[in-house]
Amino acid sequence: MRQEDPVATHAAHAAPDAGTRAMRRAIELAARGLGSTSPNPVVGCVITDASGAVVGEGWHERAGGPHAEIHALNAAGPAARGGTAYVTLEPCNHTGRTGPCARALIAAGITRVLYAVSDPNPQAGGGGATLRAAGIATESGLLAEEAEEGNAAWLTSVRLGRPYILWKYAATLDGRIAAADGTSRWISSPESRADVHRLRAESDAVVVGSGTLRADDPHLAVRGIDGFTAADQPLRVVLDTHATIRPTARVLDEAAPTLIAVAEDADTRHLAGVELARLPYDKYGISVDALLRELYGRGIRSVLLEGGPTLAGAFVAAGAVDKVVGYLAPVLLGAGPVALADAGIGTLADALRLRITETVRIGTDIRVTAVPAPAPSAPTALKEH
């Protein structure tokens, strides 16, 4: 049940040119790396030969492994010479765990490079200039908006110096996440719950608070995703200011790594062997800013926020929500906790306005995806004549 603008729908149904098709394919390939490339970006690459036929495809599969361009060049072989490379992100220009992709494209005899998004990382950017200096026709911006969306976590982390935050919740149509007696299993459909595992698989960390831990004793590990390995499990993070977690909590098993964030003065003697992060706290609990600095320092670039209304309110108050995914079930309760608690918003003028980017049917539910809307610009003053 996707909402569509008639004009946009007509344009989407128009046959795209070969370059647009190649870049869109590169964006699809890039998405295959979600959840396994951090702290590196997801990148896709398509190479066409001199006649325009696709001869190589690749994507960045795992941090430390070959980049998308290298996979695509290896697939293309000699057919890459005289061809065109379509890349979702500006080819890198530095030597890290792998060599510079800009140089690899030059060496392979590529004569034209189109990349969607410029690399904002000062340590790796500049690949476009290197390509141009070598006489390769280089353009940027093709399907930039689509490529940005697919690489939003990494781009946000580079630009803001903190992980990208996706807040997910499930609620009834009247906004309740549980009944008055606290029962909440299951408000959402099996299909929605399976979709949450996809979100987990695409994230570097899953975050909950101590309230969710006490109420639900969640496991938080990814299940039921084809091709997902134990090495890809996201970090499970529990914000537990006063270290009330029990040693028998399911989140402390060995299915995935776990980090418990506690106050600097918390008594943690009962948590011997558990990895802890001692952080400052404020009126909302563990400081969100301090937590994000801690996670960023650990290489975490994307976070799935699965906590309850109190934790969600703290993240909203900190201005640290980049996307919201709500699963709305055709259920009415009339009482019980709501999805978002105090977020420091005292008047409608200060509300966090969102822009809906997608609505789609998931089982019996509706999944709504939204991102913070740009702040409205001030009206332009009229000049007197």
How are the elements arranged and paired?
Blueprint: H1 6-13, H2 18-30, E1 44-48, E2 54-59, H3 68-76, E3 84-89, H4 101-107, E4 112-117, H5 127-133, E5 137-140, H6 144-150, H7 152-160, E6 164-172, H8 190-201, E7 205-209, H9 210-216, E8 235-239, E9 258-263, E10 276-279, E11 281-282, E12 285-286, H10 288-297, E13 302-305, H11 309-317, E14 323-329, E15 354-362, E16 365-372
Parallel strand pairs: 3-4, 4-5, 6-13, 6-14, 7-8, 7-13, 8-9, 9-10
Antiparallel strand pairs: 1-2, 1-3, 11-12, 14-16, 15-16
Describe the overall structure.
The chain is an alpha/beta fold and 385 residues long. The chain is 25% helix and 23% strand. The chain is built from eleven helices and 16 strands. It has helices at residues 6-13, 18-30, 68-76, 101-107, 127-133, 144-150, 152-160, 190-201, 210-216, 288-297, 309-317, and strands spanning 44-48, 54-59, 84-89, 112-117, 137-140, 164-172, 205-209, 235-239, 258-263, 276-279, 281-282, 285-286, 302-305, 323-329, 354-362, 365-372. The chain has a nine-stranded mixed beta sheet with strand order 10-9-8-7-13-6-14-16-15, with helices on both faces. Helix 4 packs parallel to helix 5. The radius of gyration is 23 Å and the shape is elongated.
Keywords:
elongated, five-stranded mixed β-sheet, nine-stranded mixed β-sheet, 385 residues, alpha/beta, disordered C terminus
